[in-house]
Amino acid sequence: MKAVVFVSVFLVLLLLSAVPSYSESIDSISSSVRTPEELAGWLSQNIDYEFTFGSNSPNTIQDILDSKKGNCEDFALLVSEGLNRLEIENKIIVLKARGIPFSHAVCVWKNNDGTYSFTSNAELYNTKEKRVEDAMAKCFPEYDKILNYSEVRIAWRR
Question: Per CATH, is 24-157 categorized as 3.10.620.30?
Answer without folding.
Answer: yes
